[in-house]
Amino acid sequence: MMEPLPGASLQKACRLLVIFCALHLVVTMVYYLAGRDLDIFQYFTENQQSQHDWKNASTTPAAEPHVCPETSPLLVGPLNIEFSNPVDLEETKKENPAVRDGGRHTPKDCQALQKVAVIIPFRHRDKHLKYWLYYLHPILQRQQLDYGVYVINQDGEETFNRAKLMNVGFAEALKDYDYDCFVFSDVDLIPMDDRNIYKCNSQPRHLSVSVDKLGFRLPYQQLFGGVTALSKDQFQKINGFPNNYWGWGGEDDDISNRIRYNKMSISRPNAIIGKYRMIQHFRDAKNEPNPQRFDRIAHTKETMNSDGLNSLSYEVLKTEKYPLYTIITVNIGLPKSIS
Ligand code: UDH
Ligand code: NGS
Where do the structural domains in the chain lie, given as residue ranges? Predict the structure, then answer.
């Protein structure tokens, strides 16, 4: 037998190596192309998925607007308030296009933290009301509040009753919208700083803490007159305000007593943020100091559970929705002694 030539076996080994390399190349190419195909496949599925999501987005309702921030970015701080030029309400309306009929406003870009009814006890103070609307609408909008303005107009010329009108405002505003906060404001008080937020707090709030007419000082710690804010719960807890303070004075001290007897306290902004201008005026007819006020405030504890929201009676004579406010004219009856 002849021995195989060493050159022939080398040739065979080389051929095997070439075949092996070719096979390796084919397998690698197959895997490579298979991989690309997978990617392409994924691309199509993702694309279809995103189209699907887009279609879905157009059929599902728009997302809820985000909640407004705790501090509105629109606030400017101290304001220049003066009463020398008369106010034209048509102009004021044009300057506040986002205010809806009846004096309602809801922030456009975010969901307000509170729904606030502003209640103004009123009779024969048209000039003051115009200033109030002129100054307050821009402020309340910058505060990003969902609010409505309710002017509660006492019908007739009998003795004025500020606290009872405010009880009426509470009851009537709730028939209009699901308010959770109530700001009670005299018509002649204008805040001098828009950081004084017309919103409710964990405790009843006294907003008009330093009024120009009172030398920008709080005359006494328990004062709760002028402009105040109570949540619906706080207001109901104290059975609302007293109905039987006819004439000037004392009703705010009774409210202050109710707050204390119901184990709440008064919260306030500081004396800078809490600055107010009061529109100068003389004492109104039929709002003379009430001679019974000292006796009444001495008995708040005994009277508060029977005189208030649970004993409120009145008759709405007219409700008018103007572009910048709602005015509700009411018959609130007469003081007991003459009814
Ligand atoms: N109010 C009316 N009409 C009235 C009486 C009172 O709208 O006839 C309302 C109004 O919102 C007013 C609030 O009740 O802001 C409080 O009444 P007020 O302004 O008479 O009380 P105030 O303590 O003044 O501010 C008392 C008389 C001050 C005489 C000052 C003389 N320089
Ligand atoms: C008190 C009155 C309050 C009144 C406060 C401030 O004396 O009703 O003065 O009045 N209380 C009584 O009379 C019992 S002010 O200076 O703003 O006219 O809110």
Answer: 98-331
Average pLDDT over residues 154-168: 98
Mean pLDDT of 175-194: 98
Quickly name the fold that domain 98-331 has: Spore Coat Polysaccharide Biosynthesis Protein SpsA; Chain A (3.90.550)
Question: Would you tell me how many other CB atoms lie within 10 Å of the CB of residue 177?
Answer: 14
pLDDT at 229: 99
How long a stretch of residues is the chain? 339
Distance CA(214)–CA(277), nearest Å, equals 10
Q: How far apart are CA 163 and CA 65, in angstroms?
A: 37
d(CA 250, CA 323): 34
Residue 287 beta carbon below 6 angstroms from any ligand 1 atom: yes
Write down the pLDDT at residue 2: 37
Give the Å distance between the CA of 193 and the centre of ligand 2. 24
Nearest CA to ligand 2 atom 4: 249
